[in-house]
Amino acid sequence: MKPAASPPQRLRAWCARNPWRAWLAAAGGAAVLALGGCAQPPRTIAVEQLPQDALFAASHEAADAAAAADRLFEMSAPMREYAERVLRQPGGWRDRRQALIDALYGKDALHLAYDAEATRTAAEAFEARAGNCLSLVLMTAAFAKHLDLPVSYQQVLVDEEYTRAGGLYFASGHVNVMLGRHGGPARVDDAHWLMIDFLPQLDLRGQRTLQLEEHTLAAMFLNNRAAEALARGELDKAYWWARTALQRDGTFAAAANTLAVVYQRGGHFAAAERALRFVIEREPASANAWSNLVRLLRAQGRDAEARVAAERLAAIEPTPPFHFLELGRQALQRGEAAQARDLFQRELRVQPQQHEAHFGLAQAYAALGDARNAARHLALAAEYSPTRSARAIYAAKLDRLRATQHQ
User: Fold this and answer.
1) Are 126 and 76 in contact (CB under 8 A)?
2) Is 96 helix (H, G, I), strand (E, B) or coil?
3) Neighbours of 221 (CB within 10 A)
4) Would you give the end-to-end CA distance of the chain in angstroms?
5) Angle 269-282/287-299 helices, nearest 10 degrees?
6) Helices (H) and strands (E) in the chain, counts
């Protein structure tokens, strides 16, 4: 009997999707949830049991990770010069927040680009004129702190969408930043606070949010850096970044899941399982942790346990990420363009901003002779791409398609 295929390893990363545009809303429009208050089953694994430093090369990575977390909001000399030249205009402001938003994200401002290829500190995002939503939150907060504006952070509880790189699946979370008035009330729920977000407004109407402390934001940054190192195959570097994330926030389960993937890829199965059990004790409905556990158990030949874990995963997530996308690609390879079109459309009902699904749909429409819809979905693939390099590839394909249409 053919063994069941192992699911891909999964990580949680923040701000790995596009499109983005800065928009403002009053703080009262979103429901902010506080963690805690619910009964939890006993936990048998402590965060102190997870690090295994002896398994990885000791290097400067640990110091680099800690230093980067300490410098998240550090203003570079060009940032300070920009703040003084552009933000501190003579005549004063009616609202310093609006001056900041206009200077950073207005029509004639910095012309920032969305780029999820690397998670940057505030100064790195300013220098690159690009970043994912976490990097842009850091940069916005750094300028806000410079202007003596109260700052708060939120995790937005949006439906997870997935991207892929380096043989890994990345479940994308989302964060935004809240700015209070200069000299105004310190309460985050006050109506005078503004929320600045980097997703279209319609995506966030009615969404719930969790307020974040800066140490958790730092852990998210470090976890992203670990995930990016993993995608490049740099296990030692990924270990130290994920380990440092847990040092910054010992309750941050996403970093423990990343650590588990590091251990599994290094062949350290016992350490990997301990980290995954740590996550599952704290987040029993984590599809990412259960999926990684299924893969880990199968790799050790523990098939009976793997079947139990797979059943639990199926109950949490009946349809895995990219399921219809892969079926659509297989249909395209068989020359069944109409079936491929329908399958890609089903994937988009699950992940409306999945650029690979839009690209597959463009290919299906092209095979069906529908150049107009092929061009439309190629344009959407470019728009929703999380990196500038992917957008450039799709844009080039779209240019070639349009050129053939005019021949």
Assistant:
1) yes
2) helix
3) 26
4) 54
5) 150
6) 17, 9
Which DSSP helix (H) or strand (E) runs through 115?
A: none
CA 316 from chain center: how many Å?
A: 21
d(CA 22, CA 381): 20
Do residues 172 and 160 make contact, with C-beta atoms less than 8 angstroms apart? Answer: yes
pLDDT level of residue 184 (50, 70, 90 thresholds)? low
- Under a CB-based contact definition with an 8 Å cutoff, are residues 255 and 249 in contact? yes
Give the domains, in start order, of the chain with CATH numbers: 9-34+52-232 (3.10.620), 323-405 (1.25.40.10)
On the CB side of 16, CA atoms within 13 Å amount to 25
Instruction: Give the chain's length.
Output: 407
CA distance 348 to 338: 16
Query: How does pLDDT run across 352-367, given as a tens digit for each residue?
Result: 989 999 999 999 999 9
What are the CB-based long-range contacts (under 8 Å, 24+) for 205-209? Answer: 205/29, 207/30, 207/156, 207/157, 207/158, 208/30, 208/31, 208/32, 208/33, 208/156, 208/157, 209/30, 209/31, 209/32, 209/33, 209/154, 209/155, 209/156, 209/157, 209/176
Rounded Cα–Cα distance for residues 168 and 166 (Å): 5
Of 360, 355, 359, which is closest to residue 163 (Cα–Cα)?
355
CB-based contact 137:152 (threshold 8 Å): no
How far apart are the C-alpha atoms of 46 and 184, rounded to whole Å? 41
Determine the residue type at 144.
A
Residue position matching structure tokens 């974040």: 212
Count other Cβ atoms within 10 Å, centred on residue 39.
4
Among residues 346, 404, 357, 343, the alpha carbon closest in space to that of 385 is found at 357
d(CA 276, CA 272): 6
Closest of 325, 316, 266, 327 to residue 294, by C-alpha: 316
169: which strand partners? 10, 164
Closest CA to 321 of 17, 7, 4: 7
Structure tokens at 251: 């309750």
List pLDDT tens digits, range 191-227: 678 888 877 654 666 678 889 999 999 999 999 999 9
